[in-house]
Queue: 2 jobs
Job 1
Amino acid sequence: MTLAADKTVEVRGEDSFDLAAMHAWLAGQVPGGARPVFRFHEGQTDNPALKDLWRFVGYLDGRCRRISGGGHA
C-alpha cells in the first residue's frame, strides 16, 4: 500500500482511492459523521450513497487487518 504525493492510495495495483475526493464526498454525502454509515450496516436505511462508503470502509478494514496480521479478511 502506498500513499502518493497527490494523496491517492494505491494497493498493489488492485484499487486506488483518492483520499481528498473521499473526504470531500464524505463531507457532502454523510452529514452527522459515521453514525449514518452504521445505520446502513444495521439495515436501518437503504441510502445508496452509504452503500459505497460501507464497502470502502470494509475494504480498508480488511486491508489493515491483513497488513497488521490481525485477522482474516
Job 2
Amino acid sequence: MENKDQTHSNKLTRVGTKMANENIPTVDLSPFFTNGDEDGKRRAKEKISQASSEYGFFNVVNHGVPLALINQAMKLSKMFFDTPDEEKLKIFVLRLGWLSPAVPMWIS
C-alpha cells in the first residue's frame, strides 16, 4: 500500500511526463458565441474539465477578448512581478476570506 506522499509524488511524475510529451490542451470557445451549437459547447466544457484535471491549465482560443487588452494585461502583470518585493508589500490587499489570518490586510 502506498503512503499519501508516494501517491502524490507519483501523480506529479505522471503529470510532468505527460506535459513534457504533449501539447498544452487548447479549448475553442467559439460555440459559446454561436447560437444553437450545443454540441460544441458540450465538447468545450468536457475539454475544460479534462484539461483542468490532467494539466491544471489550458489554452483558450476564440474567446472574444481583444488582443490589445490581453497585451495590456500581460504588460501590467510583468511590471508587477518585476517590482521589488519591498514595493509589492506596500500594496493594499483586500481580504476575501481565502487568505491566511497571518497575512496582514496591508502594510504601511
